[in-house]
Amino acid sequence: MKSLFKQTLQNSKSIVGLDHNRYNLVHDRPQTNSRGRLASTLSSLGLGAIILLASAIPAWGEGSQQLGRGDQGLNVFLFEYNAANGFIQGTNRGIQVNVENPGDVINVSLCGWSLTDTTAIRVFRPSGAPLDYNNQVAAGSPGFFDSAVTAWRLAGSNAQTASQATLCNNQDNPDSAVGNLTTPVRFIASEAGTYEINLFNTSQGNGGGSNNVFTYFDITVTSSASVNPDPNADNGQIWATSWAFNAGNTFFAPGGYDADLYIRTPGGRPNTEFIWQLDLNNFAPQRHEIVANSIGLNPPNSRTSALGSSGASFAREFPIYLAPPNSSSAVLPVLPEPASPNLTNLRFFDNNSQDNSISPNSTTNVQDSGFFQFDLDVAGTYRIIIDTNDNRSFDNGDRVLFGSATAGANAVEWDGRGINAAVLPSGTYPAQVSIGLGEYHFVAFDAETSGGGTNNGLAIWDANGSNPRTPVLNHWDDSPIAGTRNLVGALSNTPAGRHTWGNFSSGGIGNTNFIDTWVFGNIQDQETQTIIADTDDNDFGDAPDTYGTDTDITVGGIPASHLISANLHLGTVAPDLEADGQPTSNADGDDNNGTAPDDEEGVNFIGNSTSYSATVRVTNTTGEDAYLAGWIDFNQDGTFQASEGVVATVADNDTTATLTWTNLSGLAAGDTYYARLRINDAPLTTSDFNGGGSNGEVEDYQVSDPNVLLVKRITAINNTQLTDVEDGGTSTDADNHPFWPANYLVGQIDAGTVQPGDDVEYTVYFLNTGSSAAEGVRFCDRIQPEEALKLAAYGGPDPDVQVRLGTSATLDLSAANDAADRTQFVAGGTTLPATCNLQGANANGTLIFDITGAANTGLPNLTLFPGSTGQGQPNNAYGFFRYTTTINQ
């Protein structure tokens, strides 16, 4: 059965991607023959070109001016559609435009690297078909339709306005437009939907190099051709899955820029999403590509930075907007964020499916690793932080596991190694499992600087709320490129949450390397424990299985278990090895498992109606404190609860410890309860009734609240026997129980007046009316004031006290504390054992009688005090002990 569970767990591991169906428009449309022909045809023309721009009536624009100004003006140049060089990873970078209404106009304004550049524009309708350039370009638009390349061409003698010459300063960095743009190419939309724009400039390097760019661009949707676009306004209609830029044609400070870009990622749940703001600060990469995806670099380099020489690559996946997405759009409506993921059934278990301990330092290939197992109601991202530096906090010195999780069961393997890949020493290591949604990565390649000097670098924010933006945890791992690690994450509104590197020069960690920054949202955290052990052997409990004794860890968690230790255990006998829990109705499966000696010998329980205590024998020779915890199922619901537990500390070399439960109610005398004790080398809480522990032991017991009736009578004065049988009161009193033998309770309650020097004999009758046998039964009877225990009051070799069980022979016992019998007298003024549970001082002395004990530990040789089944049955379910006192002179 266990091998089947193991196979199930191994098969449940999964790595999945997020649902991208919501964004089916983000992927480039299939190439048409005419699109492929355009690049080769334009590269051979060598014609001069100009472009468009200037001022008039309001509309919404997006382009260069949304990317922000640098030290030298608008210094973020857009690479053309087919640009390819060693710093951008792909061609075919279509720009998407959301058009809300038929008849709206897409306005395109451009400046090439040079005023003589040949540029072209190609437009595709939402269906993927090319625009009808003969009928869908507004009159007066500069340029012409070139049927040979099926694109709108801008070249030669296109008109310029006075402001355009200032705006199109080209590589000298254009400045912001003053007013609206007056000479765009105006493409008239025939239907609502998402259009694709391809921008071409092949005059500089024939698709390669650094200058096949647009030093200025603006794409604006207006309601008609008579409305001029305002390039300073944001409407969130323009997006792409890849933006390729040349920042000022330098990676020095003049090339740095500040920009806010907006990325939409699926929320994991239907009709939800996240909108992330990529906040670039003093970002100086020169030639670079901005893409967005869910894992960063492609495997095997996902969720980490990487050397440029590693051959790493990344995919285009999510839409990137130049302004906050239009909240009123009907074409791609802004969706709410999802509800947080529901994380359940979290536990850690070894690869043999036994418990939450692994032993990579012990037998090879036996429990060398384990799995974090959890269930989710939605696919998302997991982050698991294991406190491997053992500082009781989750920080960047810890081992962190990141990955994708699926809806349903998940299992994530951990090999017991820390941040430096070395196997950790034995110990308990807390772990935090975090699940989030909407994971987004920004990978920068060959970006020399982010921030620079004392400036803070880039950060990612949540921009899909009522506030403009909300800080979130930013993560990165630059250790493969000799940088910092921030896998635990830090908030974007703190310096620690800003991903900062470089100083506007070559040779830093960003130079020719990949640097990844990522976030995920609506995180839910839970904690669990892992244990690295120096042994593969475990000790389990044996209470009925409702207490989690033999819990299948693939379904309900880790059963109570401990790693066997010769230096730390309950009792004096080290625990034996078990493969699993041993649930039995009497909680004696571990006792009766055929392994000798019995290792369940650690405790005596003593109770009354409002409190319960356990004197626990322990072995702790570890050199350090250990921790003891106990639970009793007082409400008898078949499970242990934190409210039923108590804990105590066991100092090094202690041999006993006492657990006491107080303020109890509802205990029924004679009823049976189940108890669990655990000793561990790491702290325990009252919530730790199940789960794997480190070095120590677990023992389960069936206990009962004893219903032992006691009736005390005066049975002789000066050796004159009092043979009356008196009723002490109502029918509910102890002396009226029907299981007493007939006429058994001989003696008087009030024997009249006595004189100094008189001898008074007391007899204490006892009867177990409980449903089960009792053990550890101790009677403590105080000597009354003005009286003294009379020694040698009876004949025989030990004539101090007499005891009789049922109809057996009467035994003469000694009041001395010796091994011959189980009676002892504790003189007045001496502290009584806590197990006597008597109130007040021991003024005149106390007689202690243990009716039960271990075998062969003195008379009477009774190990269990059986419950009575009828009148006088069984024979040793009742009896008496008696002693004599002398009235003081």
UniProtKB/TrEMBL annotation:
<feature type="transmembrane region" description="Helical">
    <location>
        <begin position="38"/>
        <end position="60"/>
    </location>
</feature>
<dbReference type="Pfam" id="PF20009">
    <property type="entry name" value="GEVED"/>
</dbReference>
<protein>
    <recommendedName>
        <fullName>GEVED domain-containing protein</fullName>
    </recommendedName>
</protein>
<keyword id="KW-1133">Transmembrane helix</keyword>
<feature type="domain" description="GEVED">
    <location>
        <begin position="627"/>
        <end position="703"/>
    </location>
</feature>
<feature type="region of interest" description="Disordered">
    <location>
        <begin position="575"/>
        <end position="606"/>
    </location>
</feature>
<keyword id="KW-0472">Membrane</keyword>
<keyword id="KW-0812">Transmembrane</keyword>
<feature type="compositionally biased region" description="Polar residues">
    <location>
        <begin position="582"/>
        <end position="595"/>
    </location>
</feature>
<dbReference type="InterPro" id="IPR045474">
    <property type="entry name" value="GEVED"/>
</dbReference>
